[in-house]
Amino acid sequence: MKEWVIFQSRRGMKELDLILEWFAHRVYERLEKKSQILYHDFLQESDGDIWDWFFQLRPAPEKYRIFLHILREHFCPQHKSILEFFDDKI
The whole model's pTM is what? Predict the structure, then answer.
């Protein structure tokens, strides 16, 4: 199942690839089964929705907020600019 999650984490945007692949490799297997299933649903959402939710351009559904919180904590420590982070990676 982890292979499916890694594959689904490869999106149309390099930035989302970096964010979601990190989660797939570092966090996914530590989730409870119920949360893993919910994360599968999260990966079925559109790139635009995930992008907007990650950058808080629109409110995310409550059920996905824990994933977004974990991602933001890793990629935006101490409110570091997300664009600053990506400048180093792309």
Answer: 0.78
